[in-house]
């Protein structure tokens, strides 16, 4: 397996989940196909072209604080994972960042023609939790889904995350980055909750 893979995990009854570094150019078509769908509206990239998506991830690749990955199940791409240092992100203006915190954004690929499968999200989130809390040796994960994204919020809470405050993430408008204001539901998962004992 190439050095682009930062984590692989066999999940009982599910398959092998791998976390692979995103290639901004080579993976742009795949990611663009996911983020342009209406179901991904909360990701904030609906109206972007494939080249614009590639540019965003090429810019992210230059940052030491933000990283993008593809999640794969048995070698097939099934999700987009972004990690970030909360103190280097607008979320830090909305909660007290603790040492060992890591932020996560997660976009799961659309279900195949057969439709959603039971346990799919849970298995992928479990592998993500292992990667960020164990492999990266972090103490707590923070997520900030849009308050209207009830499915994502419920998914995180089922996984053991604890709901924090509802906050307004401020607009960011600087060269290379524009993010509109976002009403978000913060949620947190501590390592000792995800991996007791």
Automatic annotation (TrEMBL):
Keywords: Acyltransferase, Transferase
A GO term, aspect molecular function: acyltransferase activity
One Pfam family here: Acetyltransf_8
InterPro entries noted in UniProt: Acyl_CoA_acyltransferase, Acyltransferase_MbtK/IucB-like
Organism, scientific name: Streptomyces justiciae
SMART domains: AlcB
Domain called Acyltransferase MbtK/IucB-like conserved: residue spans: 20-68
Pathway stated in the Swiss-Prot or TrEMBL entry: Siderophore biosynthesis; mycobactin biosynthesis
SUPFAM superfamilies reported for this sequence: Acyl-CoA N-acyltransferases (Nat)
Task of the protein: Acyltransferase required for the direct transfer of medium- to long-chain fatty acyl moieties from a carrier protein (MbtL) on to the epsilon-amino group of lysine residue in the mycobactin core.
Protein name per its UniProtKB record: Lysine N-acyltransferase MbtK
Keyword presence, Acyltransferase: yes
Top-level taxon: Bacteria
């Amino acid at each position: 397996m190439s050095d682009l893979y930062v984590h692989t995990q066999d999940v009982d009854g599910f398959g092998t989940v791998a976390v692979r570094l995103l290639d901004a150019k080579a993976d742009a078509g795949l990611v663009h196909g996911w983020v342009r769908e209406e179901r991904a509206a909360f990701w904030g990239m609906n109206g972007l072209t494939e080249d614009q998506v590639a540019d965003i991830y090429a810019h992210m690749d230059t940052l030491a604080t933000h990283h993008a990955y593809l999640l794969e199940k048995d070698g097939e791409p099934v999700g987009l994972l972004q990690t970030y240092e909360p103190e280097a992100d607008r979320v830090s203006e909305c909660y007290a960042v603790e040492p060992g915190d890591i932020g996560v954004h997660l976009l799961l690929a659309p279900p195949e023609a057969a439709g959603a499968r039971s346990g799919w999200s849970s298995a992928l989130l479990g592998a993500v939790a292992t990667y960020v809390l164990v492999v990266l040796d972090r103490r707590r994960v923070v997520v900030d889904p849009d308050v209207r994204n009830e499915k994502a919020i419920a998914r995180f809470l089922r996984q053991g995350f604890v709901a924090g405050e509802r906050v307004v993430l401020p607009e960011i408008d600087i060269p290379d980055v524009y993010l509109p204001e976002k009403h978000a539901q913060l949620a947190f998962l501590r390592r000792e909750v995800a991996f007791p004992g």
